[in-house]
Predict the structure.
Amino acid sequence: MPSRGPDRSAPLGRAIHDRIEALRRLVDEALERELPPETAWPETIHRAVRYSLFAGGKRLRPVLALASGEAVGGDREELMPFACAVEMIHTYSLIHDDLPAMDDDDLRRGKPTSHKVFGEANAILAGDALLTRAFHVLAQVPEAYDGERLRRRFQATALLAEASGSQGLIGGQVVDLESAGREVEEAELERMHRAKTGALIGACVQGGAILGGAGAEPLRHLSRYGRAIGLAFQIVDDVLDATETAESLGKTPGKDLSAGKATYVRLFGLARSRALAQELLAEALAALEPLGEHGELLAGLARLVVERNG
Amino acid sequence: MPSRGPDRSAPLGRAIHDRIEALRRLVDEALERELPPETAWPETIHRAVRYSLFAGGKRLRPVLALASGEAVGGDREELMPFACAVEMIHTYSLIHDDLPAMDDDDLRRGKPTSHKVFGEANAILAGDALLTRAFHVLAQVPEAYDGERLRRRFQATALLAEASGSQGLIGGQVVDLESAGREVEEAELERMHRAKTGALIGACVQGGAILGGAGAEPLRHLSRYGRAIGLAFQIVDDVLDATETAESLGKTPGKDLSAGKATYVRLFGLARSRALAQELLAEALAALEPLGEHGELLAGLARLVVERNG
């Protein structure tokens, strides 16, 4: 057993690693239940949806949602539909971002991208189906839920929709595409990264906390944590795009740089980008302090975000 | 004033026409409120979203939702977010269906399609944004709502998500694309049409009724009505595609036939297709009988669906 206090300097402990793995497996099982089978009519779309959703994603976002909700005493069954919805939205965004009209990527998670396997039309529709399914999952509420639980579900759903919408994930992608070959200043770059990646990661943490019944104070701390790791995630992505191989990333590296996209590495160089990510990690860990040992798993996840290599 | 009883053989009366127009205007005003302004960051996506949403659509689906809910005594304010969501989903589906990778259409509602104006990437993202916004609108519930109203909102949202999903609208589009150049039998064609068009129209009527607080009996009648006009709508679309000009349709006619798509006209010819649509109109009107004068507006809308020329 690890020490009970959150030892923030240690490498990811075995116990934390095992807890993350256990949550990942639960998310995979829940996702399996939340989708129509591959044989459902029409088969093409269900094969395409499952191909991308079960392509070996790390399930970081749903695990963050579960960990955040459980850190404030939430009920796993109440959190799981939200966790599934978050992963569906993340996966849809990858399918659409990879399309020829967007980032034109052939490789994702070490496999050919959706449009390479199923064609462009089906890839667009598979993304649409995952986005729609995410909200379908959230809209199916148990008979036994009282008004308070129903209201919490709506709040988390609204947060998720906002983070995924035209001023969040979608808006970030629009600006990302427009940034190609253009000089972008720090404030604009941060805004773009926060929208493209940070908003959804932040919504995972915040939505999980709301579903977990967090009071105002813990919610504030968790929101600060989510905001910090959300931006850190994208900065690390920029670093990995510039330094890693296709094998470790499971996607084509160097694409952002060669496309002249605005990235932290382009603006600040590698060393400063890495330092910024470490600063955000410290900020995230500081935000968890008031949660004591309840913040342990989230602290481990923050380190995973910043110290990953793929 | 028209006679109070539903005179089902008369042409669309002036009073019914005026009621439909009034609802259309209210829907337009509500849609205006439910979207970020065109100047919101990032502007491109908000311009693209508004370009398609305010391109002169007939607002049939939201008006159906309002009429259905009001037919059972529902509250217009409770119905309006659902009506807006339905129109946003309909508009997103048109933007994506028109993409080069799908039906490759240059013209919609008499204007250049979204990808012609904003490029493919932004058109895909504008569709994504509208789909996401639809569920965002539904997830924002008034503070004052009690458990029953919250539950109704979830039920209508789930219905809408199902109708729009991989076994509804999206599934129908998948099969429609796969039908090009292939022989399709009546049962498969009907299933495809019901998924592609019927499901969403049915969900408008059923969701409106649920939000209006319909009891089991009226809900059954209205569901039957929605099912009939949903299929009728797509059959009439097939007829118009084969007979009308680009000017009256506002989109390129003859595309389904020239692409070898499965349509009622291709399978049954024009006369039999028109007769089928009339049979479905009679079925829809019969379903409204038990509602008496409360069904008047819905009867008018059914006639509008079958007797439109664009």
In short: The beta strands of chain A are 107-108, 111-112.
